[in-house]
Amino acid sequence: MQKITLLIHCEDQPNIIASVTNFIAINDGNIVYIDQHVDREQNIFFMRLECEFASNTFALENFKQLFSTTLAQKFQLEWKIFAAERKPKMALFVSKYDHCLYDILGRYNSGELFLEIPFILSNHLDLKPIADSFNIPFYHVPITASTKDEAEQKQLELLESHAIDFIVLARYMQIVSKTLIDNYPNKIINIHHSFLPAFVGAKPYHSAYKRGVKIIGATSHYITEVLDAGPIIEQDVAHVSHTHSIKDLIAKGRDLEKIVLSNAIKLHTKRKVMVYNNKTIIFS
Fold first, then answer.
1. pTM higher than 0.90, yes or no?
2. Would residue 228 show up in a list of annotated catalytic residues for this protein?
3. pLDDT 10s digit of each residue in the chain, 284 long?
4. What are phi and psi for residue 30, nearest 5 degrees?
5. Torsion, CA 255, CA 257, CA 259, CA 261, rounded to 10
6. Where are the alpha helices (DSSP H) in 27-72?
7. Which one of the listed residues 182, 228, 236, 248 is annotated catalytic?
């Protein structure tokens, strides 16, 4: 069997679900998952569908062409079809923090993440031994004010030469350029702490400790030109109290970052995230 995932969104209108499911049935497909959502404020319909076809009769490109001419034009659909057996290629960008990197590589090594990691890129050499221990190519691309454009070009060359599908910033401590964002729209995933109330600066946990926060958290989102303001994929929080030290806050925060980032990666690779107007629809 060949399995595909179909994502669509369009202006909400009658008969979309029936038309799509009938199209699948007519083309000898078997639907194994379907979910939909209507954004009433914007009047936009979203749907995610998984279906299977007999491998000896199914041709993906022919199916795409037929879907486009039969349904997409009729309903003015924005749509994507993904072959389920293809593992997306993910590039990891890191700096000096290693907790997210270790967590991702551990999950990857155990087969928990359905993806390929062609390389790890860093602006420092500190984490190269980790990449070496997992037998993953490591590229050192240092960045200074005078070499930023050159470094960016090197990054793009590596991404294109390895046919990378998406990028994960596993605590990569550099602002990503507009050029990279434009080349990978809604395909660059970031992770950062999130406090209530929020604290910025080099030592947010120290500031949060002094303020006596009761909740700390982590947020994973797609990168946009506005810093830390992209569409949110996953979030989580942990309660803390006056008994927790700064060291405790940092440890809890890093645990949250690992879990939230790995969950965001899973949602992205399983094609369960749809982005519309800087907001995400996350399917179960």
1. yes
2. yes
3. 899 999 999 999 999 999 999 999 999 999 999 999 999 999 999 999 999 998 788 899 999 999 999 999 999 999 999 999 999 999 999 999 999 999 999 999 999 999 999 999 999 999 999 999 999 999 999 999 888 899 999 999 999 999 999 999 999 999 998 999 999 999 999 998 887 667 777 788 888 888 898 999 999 999 999 888 899 999 999 999 999 999 999 999 999 999 999 999 999 999 999 999 999 999 98
4. -120, 115
5. -160
6. 60-67
7. 228
